[in-house]
Amino acid sequence: MEHKLRYALIGCGRIASNHIAAVLKNADTLELTAVCDLIPGRMEDVLSHVPPAQRALVLRYEDYAQMLSQVKPDLVAVATESGKHAAIGLDCIAAGCHVIIEKPLALCMADGRALIAAAREKGVKLCACHQNRFNKSIQKIRTAVEENRFGRMLHGAAHIRWSRGKEYYAQAPWRGTWAQDGGALMNQCIHNIDLLRWMMGDEVTQVMAYTDNLEHPYIQAEDLGLALVKFAGGAYGLIEGTTNIFPHNLEETLYIFGENGTVKAGGKSVNRIEEWDFRDGRGDPATIIMEFKEDPPNVYGFGHTPLYADMAQAILQNRLPYIDGESGLRAVELVLAIYLSAQRGQPVNLPLSDCATTDFQGRFGR
Question: Cα(233)–Cα(63) distance, rounded to whole angstroms?
Answer without folding.
Answer: 47
